[in-house]
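ugh finaly. both done.
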Amino acid sequence: MHVRTLTSGLAAALVVTFSLMGGQAVAAPAADADGALAARVVTYDASGSAEFRSAVDRGAAIWNESVDAVELRPVAAGQRANIRVLADNGWPRAITTSLGNGTVYIGRQAVNEGHNTIRISSHELGHILGLPDRKPGPCTSLMSGSSAGTTCTNAYPNTAEKAEVEGYFGGGFARTAGAVPLNTMIVD
């Protein structure tokens, strides 16, 4: 994971400033003694993802390789996860409850049609991280989802998608207009 530096005093001042201005403030990740910005940890529980468990773990690892401000980790035993991942026979979808929280369904219907399981997992996790669908779209856009076709196996977010997630978790203080609305089901 890459490390980004930001002084904690500046981050705290901006949070207070935006709060006083009436804007929606989102807590910035804490900085360590050297001023390195710590990633926000978002846990996931893939115990209900059946045969897609390894694809879910790989999708999470792809996000961890791609962005600095958030880290997806398997939930520890006895703890509640931010994200539940389930397998079912429907179409893949995500239900967001708040930024970094919700439920992902890895639907067998898309897999049976030939869509790549790792791309599905990474795409659905992208919704939980705040990204909307961008359809139709090219294979280079992870959030183009199924519109890129069954031959597309790209499971990595593009530069713009990475930057958007970094903005949400890396000290960005307000959700942007393109963000996924909260408490919404997104059926891909």
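ok and the 2nd:
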Amino acid sequence: MTAAPLAYATRTVTDERDRAACFQLRKEVFVGEQNVPEEIEYDVYDADALHVIAVAADGTALGTGRLLHGAAATAHTGGDLTVGSLGRLAVSREARGLGVGAALVRAIEDAARDNGLAAVDLHAQTHALRFYERLGYEPYGPEFMDAGIRHRAMRRTI
């Protein structure tokens, strides 16, 4: 007998409790698992970014991501104000492989559309390229290092 799929929902973060849960997930995944220095994990963009969270039916935070748009995104998008920047996508170890990451990407894309954007850029860790390609993102430009991890820029028109 197989277990029933995990019930969860994604939503835009609107309160401090969700925001704290997002930051805790990022700390567990990026700082704890991937050894990203904590002082560079959180940045000035967090204050104005649109954050999304995936939450299980019991209230457990499963994943998070953020969207930068407008002037905040231009450093990541080559200056194009019609392109948003998806970043800080993190899924808890327990929730990986359950579709949470894809649901978060789609929620961020929906938010980008709602903000009048035409495309979404991201900087994918190279081990995650196939994940993003399955979601319609196309790599461009050379590989680069960020926080000691190999990345590649990707874009999807929405």
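summary for the 2nd one i guess: The beta strands are 8-12, 50-56, 61-68, 83-91, 119-125, 138-146, 149-157.
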